[in-house]
Amino acid sequence: MQHTLKSQVVFVGTGLHSGKPVRMVIKPASANYGIWFRRTDVDSGDALIPARWDAVVPSRLCTLVVNSAGYSVSTIEHVMAALAGCGIHNALIEIDAPEVPILDGSSRPFVAGLLAKGIRAQSVPVRAIRILEAVEVREGDAVARFEPSDALEIDFCIDFEDAAIGRQEKTLNMSNGAFVRELCDSRTFCRQADVDAMRANGLALGGSMENAVVFDGDQVLSPGGLRHADEPVRHKMLDALGDLALAGAPILGRYTGVRAGHALTNRLLREVFARRSAWEVVECGLPTGRKLPGVGVLRSDIPVHC
């Protein structure tokens, strides 16, 4: 069955790039509604923005969706990952700014808020997108690939010169609350040199060592260090789930990312949907439905070390 929230949940924070305050309210929605954003700070034109792959436009360092009226919302990947990872299919996200609050740089605060309010089943079956054949896109040495699988699997590899990051690989089947237990608390990360460059160009004004893991060579500069020894690759998997949630339905398939980012994952979705033979829509009965992300997740699954 499809799911939505039992009641609305409010998040207040700052935007990563603007550094300005943001208030965001996630509200329950009817079956088959999907996920939509609504800009409450605009008073003319269409303020509704679909959380969908074909609304994504190129943006540095984050995922940005824009509607036909030109209204946009950026840095949506962490809240989208939280919704997908908690198995929420229908919600309206009202926001009074053009970017989602960064909070602690992970999806954990969103997950905690959603699960605290509770999730309500809706008497309509989930329709999922099943990957039928391999599809791959590349950009330089970065690769994003889909292959058939009976559940959503994410396989990711990163490789950085910084000794504190280095090469990291991880594979997870996203069934049975794996996102909440394994990935949701992993924070965005960057190198000190990148922070300096972004600040010099007026970017990441809301960034701090409280909402990102900052690396410098072989050092972790953020207070308290890492939440996981492989926190960077876990965060890349978190981002991937958020970007894949823009497919508009749960995906049954194996996603592989090698040095992939938001833009390449979106290119992969566009390539899949351009090939009608590469996918099909299936109605999820009990055996398949039990394999979807978020099924059976509990508040006690949220990591407590942070």
What are the SSEs and their pairings?
Blueprint lengths: L1 E4 L3 E6 L6 E8 L6 E5 L8 E3 L5 E2 L6 E3 L5 E3 L2 H9 L5 E5 L12 H10 L1 E4 L4 E5 L3 E5 L2 E6 L5 E7 L7 E7 L4 H6 L5 E3 H9 L12 E4 L2 E2 L10 H14 L6 E2 L1 E5 L3 H13 L4 E5 L2 H4 L17
Parallel strand pairs: 4-9, 11-19, 14-20, 16-17
Antiparallel strand pairs: 1-10, 2-3, 3-9, 4-5, 6-7, 7-8, 11-21, 12-13, 13-20, 14-15, 17-18
How would you characterize the overall build of this protein?
The chain is α+β, with helices and mostly antiparallel strands and 306 residues long. The protein has 2 domains: 121 residues, 2-Layer Sandwich (Ribosomal Protein S5, domain 2); 175 residues, lpxc deacetylase, domain 1 (2-Layer Sandwich). 21% of the residues lie in helices and 31% in strands. The chain is built from 7 helices and 21 strands. The strands form 6 sheets. The chain has a 5-stranded mixed sheet, with helices on one face. β6 and β7 form a beta hairpin. α1 packs across α5 and α5 packs parallel to α6. The longest helix has 14 residues. The model has no long low-confidence stretch (mean pLDDT 93).
Molecular shape: globular
- What is the domain tally? 2
CATH superfamily of the largest domain: lpxc deacetylase, domain 2
Arithmetic mean pLDDT: 93
The amount of beta strand, in percent, is 25-35%
Q: Helical proportion?
A: 10-25%
Number of strands: 21
Number of helices: 7
CATH architecture of the largest domain: 2-Layer Sandwich
Task: Please give the largest β-sheet.
Answer: 5 strands, mixed
Low-confidence stretches: none
Order of helices and strands: EEEEEEEEHEHEEEEEEHEHEEHEEHEH
Looking at the structure, the CATH topology of the largest domain is lpxc deacetylase, domain 1
- End-to-end separation in angstroms reads 32 Å
Radius of gyration, CA atoms, in whole angstroms:
18 Å
CATH class of the largest domain: Alpha Beta
> What is the topology, as strand order, of the major beta sheet?
2-3-9-4-5
Give me the secondary-structure category.
Answer: alpha+beta
